[in-house]
Amino acid sequence: MDTNLRVREAMKAAVRRRGLTHAQLASRLGIKQPSVTQLLNGTYGKIPQSLLEALDVLGLEIAVVESPNADDAETAQAKAEAMSLLSANPWGKKPMGLDTPVKVKGPAIEELLHDHRGPDL
């Protein structure tokens, strides 16, 4: 099986294990749902052939494994929602016309705030 296909199959399996839809994955990646479908089906996002050939010459191959630091689905969704809020409102201000602050489900986002804004913000 070619490397691009192995990578796509591993990604599809991870999507199934996490119970994600293409729309949910797209939201987390900040892209549109059709782009996720194209990525997983191999329409685009392929590893360049020249890189694959260089790996072959060097006796290397790409392996896709579950990260030991992978978040569970609920934590990953909470982080994605927090990052979406941070990108839309980089200083944490509520948007004009919004009467109540936006709530993010899941664990506290202090760690994300620290990592992406710095300790003093």
Automatic annotation (TrEMBL):
Listed CDD domains: HTH_XRE (cd00093)
Organism whose genome encodes this protein: Deinococcus seoulensis
Superkingdom field: Bacteria
SMART domains from the UniProt entry: HTH_XRE (SM00530)
InterPro entries for the chain: Cro/C1-type_HTH, Lambda_DNA-bd_dom_sf
HTH cro/C1-type domain segment(s): 11-65
Protein name: HTH cro/C1-type domain-containing protein
Transmembrane segments: none
